[in-house]
Amino acid sequence: MKLQARDTSIGHRTEEGVRTKLVRIAQRAKRDKAAKFCSLSHLLYKSTLIEAFWRLSPKAAPGVDGKSKESYAENLEENITDLYSRLKSNSFMPNPVKRKYIKKIGSNKMRPLGIPAIEDKIVQTALVIILENIYEQDFLPFSYGFRPNRNCHDALKNLSRDIGTKKVGYIIDADIKGFFDNVNHEWLGKFLQHRINDSKILRLVKRFLKAGILEEGNYYESKRGVPQGGTLSPLLANIYLHYTIDLWFDRVVTKSCKGEAYITRYADDIVFCFQYKSDAQKFYSSLKDRLNKFDLKLSEDKSKMIEFGRFAQRDAKRRGETKAETFDFLGFTHYCSKSRRGRFKLKWKIARKTFTVKVNEFGEWIKENRHLAIDEIWRKVNQKLRGHYQYYGVSDNWKGLENYKREVIKLLYKWLNRRSQRNSITWEELRQLIKVFPLAEPKVKVNLNSAFV
């Protein structure tokens, strides 16, 4: 009988720094995939809590405790000492998450926003600092969401490399319905126990999951889902999907396919690639059953299987269609096209829905801030333009950047003329103003074509 692997070598309280211990934990996790870590809670030192505190955004709204980062910092040493004492004695109890609703731009719907209390954010972030060192050794290469040194552009490059250089003929664009609100606590606990055998850490995570929600003075239990707005939520979500989707696809699905099969996942936004239609159809059917097993559901209206790849355009024309189908991923519409040499090429443009949302967001902002001085408006507008170019400035999306800047100028004209009861600026005056105080020009920041090389 094989004994359970334990990490007693790093469990002793020595003079080693926290960072040294975390490095050793990561090395052990990478070396031994069966190791269970039994001594992690002692790493919730004051230094870990202080590091977690400084990682928090200073702009975040206060939770149910009414404390901001600034107010908590006034007596930081005393507050951290008290927090550490409660964690050590297992008397720390998370507060309910404060729920607010904000208007969803481009829609009449309201979007729920979770705001944890300041100490809950600190402890959650400290847990992430510790647990990341274990799970970063387990997460698979095609997982990109909410992971250190990985971003949306990396996910887009991975997907374009699969489609552009490998045998891909069919795409499944999968959307999990209300994923973050439907994570099953029992299953999540089982997944965590594959690697974590520290009862204090597991108890702490469970307390966060069960902390509940406070909405307009009314308390609601948390029977499922991960804590809204918490820094721990993305890590827990990745752990859940690692066991429900990633390992299953990597170890079971790919081996049962007749042809090649690939996956790119950014949090709960997933694209599956297949060489053959039969493999894609078989997988699409089994995906629903797989998700149902873990209390998740596929959003039927947002998920689809399409023919996509180097032969999709040709086959579409044979069927009498003008062009191959497209799909959206991470705010970009992916479509089949050709290079200058006439070869197949994957191209990208900002998704129509995303473009509308971004324009509406800017419209809401300029409406609320049109009273500012012109130079201040211009400074902030340029910040927003550069931020837009930073993310959406990818290969082949030049036209989308120009269209966005054009819409920004139209909105500037509209709302600058509503600073008073009469028109205060003409189009010619606005053009002259832009000459004197130029707006940031569109710029391609990310070359996704490199994925084909």
Task: Provide a descriptive summary of the structure in words.
Strand 1 (97-103) and strand 2 (110-115) form a beta hairpin. This protein has a four-stranded mixed beta sheet, with no helix packed on it. The protein is 46% helix and 13% strand. With 453 residues, the protein is an alpha+beta fold.
N- to C-terminal separation?
A: 49 Å
Q: What is the chains' assembly state?
A: single chain
Contiguous runs where pLDDT drops below 50 for at least 5 residues: 1-15
**How many strands?**
11
Secondary structure category: alpha+beta
Proportion of helical residues: 40-55%
How large is the count of helical segments? 15
Instruction: Please tell me how large the radius of gyration is.
Output: 25 Å
Shape: globular
Could you state the order of secondary-structure elements as H and E? HHHHEEHHEHHEEHEEHEHEEEHHHH
What percent strand? 5-15%
Output the strand order for the largest sheet: 2-1-4-5
Give the rounded overall mean pLDDT: 91
Q: Main β-sheet: number of strands, strand sense, barrel status?
A: 4 strands, mixed
Keywords: Nucleotidyltransferase, RNA-directed DNA polymerase, Transferase
Organism: Orenia metallireducens
GO molecular function: RNA-directed DNA polymerase activity
Domain Reverse transcriptase: 83-334
